[in-house]
Specification:
Radius of gyration: 20 Å
Distance between the termini: 40 Å
Largest sheet: 2 strands, antiparallel
Oligomer: single chain
Number of helices: 7
């Protein structure tokens, strides 16, 4: 199932990459009328990645959230799709990965959602439990002690960060994954269009 999801995400990326490239880059997004999202450090990002699905699932259950909260949640989903559903190897841990900046973007949005839920007047037990677990993981991971080139870049819901596809051709883990996906597309196409041999009993 995860392979099918990744194939779908990459298909979306290839079909939409050209018009979106004009919008990539987090630093100068504020003038576009979007909502600013704080930066996330390299270590924080690794922790938030572990809890990403849970944070978004709880965020989606919030009753009548503010418009800004809903827009950040929507941005987190969209940005993760453009980042190949967060499934590219070493995208979170490797600063040289062409998917590292877009990983910063969707994980920064995820962390922002968690911070917003912490400030809501009536925190659910689920939110309180999640915050405690994330805090503990941050402490164990020494979060905020390490940074990388994207750790001090803020983001904005008006800007979609796309992977650096040219750099992907020089980044071996990404290139290997993309080559595997191409093979997967070819295999799926072959299965879809393969002509079944006629039965020998056919009249």
């Amino acid at each position: 199932m995860r392979l099918n999801q990744l194939l779908l995400a990459v298909a979306i990326l290839f079909t939409t990459a050209a018009p979106v490239l004009a919008h990539s880059g987090g630093a100068a997004a504020g003038a576009n009328g979007g909502i600013d999202i704080g930066y996330i450090t390299h270590d924080q990002m690794q922790v938030i990645y572990q809890y990403h699905d849970e944070v978004l699932a709880i965020a989606a259950r919030q009753f009548a959230p503010a418009e800004s909260f809903s827009r950040i949640l929507n941005y987190a989903h969209i940005q993760r799709t453009y980042c190949a559903l967060g499934m590219m190897p070493s995208a979170v841990t490797d600063e040289e990965s062409p998917f590292n900046e877009c990983s910063h973007a969707y994980l920064a949005a995820t962390q922002d959602l968690l911070l917003h839920m912490m400030e809501m007047p009536k925190q659910s037990t689920m939110v309180q439990d999640l915050v405690q677990r994330v805090d503990l993981a941050m402490i164990k991971n020494g979060a905020a002690l390490q940074s990388c080139q994207f750790s001090e870049i803020g983001f904005n819901t008006a800007n979609i960060i796309t992977p650096d596809w040219r750099a992907a051709l020089e980044h071996l883990p990404s290139l290997a994954t993309l080559m595997g996906l191409v093979f997967g597309f070819v295999l799926l196409a072959f299965k879809a269009f393969r002509v079944k041999p006629e039965s020998p009993n056919a009249a």
